[in-house]
């Protein structure tokens, strides 16, 4: 980063409210929780994959952070992620993301649809374009989205843009208008109205009271599933 340690920590605290060490540890624990839920890998292997050189240190840190051991956390949180347990709502939280990730990996047409919208999130899409991206007819796309999420294609696009805006608001110093444009809304006033209707708060209030989330979270989880 071409900064001294003090400068780096000062900038991170100002931007994110935490030090570099805390940011790294939070990401390691986030990854560890995901691996404990989704895989059968031994805890020792997970600790190594998350950057801990000593298994014992990982377990002690995990207990201090979550008040339970990694094995106990796995037993409490292990579940079968299936489409029936996903209720479509914005913003998408951690569990919703995991469920959506599985669905996108299993359904090629859904993968293509999300990948197209996220790759061109600043664009507007007609029903014909969305159906072509998914490789389906318009009627089939409408039916499949109704069965999965009870939404229309156009509402799905709007919600994906709002989710991306939520992630931007959580970790960007960009203005509300700038975030609106980056998330694919051509009118900041329209963006604010949509945001309040769907999220239940104004973009400014959401930015002030919501924790930091990776701005690339949605794209990371969904776009890289292509071809699976």
TrEMBL record:
Task: Extract the InterPro entries matched here.
Answer: Homeodomain-like_sf, HTH_AraC, HTH_AraC-typ_CS, Tscrpt_reg_AraC-type_HTH
Q: Enumerate the SMART domains for this protein.
A: HTH_ARAC
The record's keywords, sorted A to Z, are:
DNA-binding, Transcription, Transcription regulation
Q: Which organism is it from?
A: Sediminibacterium roseum
Q: Which residue ranges does the record assign to the HTH araC/xylS-type domain?
A: 1-76, 111-209
Q: Which superkingdom?
A: Bacteria
The residue ranges crossing the membrane are: none
The protein's name is Helix-turn-helix transcriptional regulator
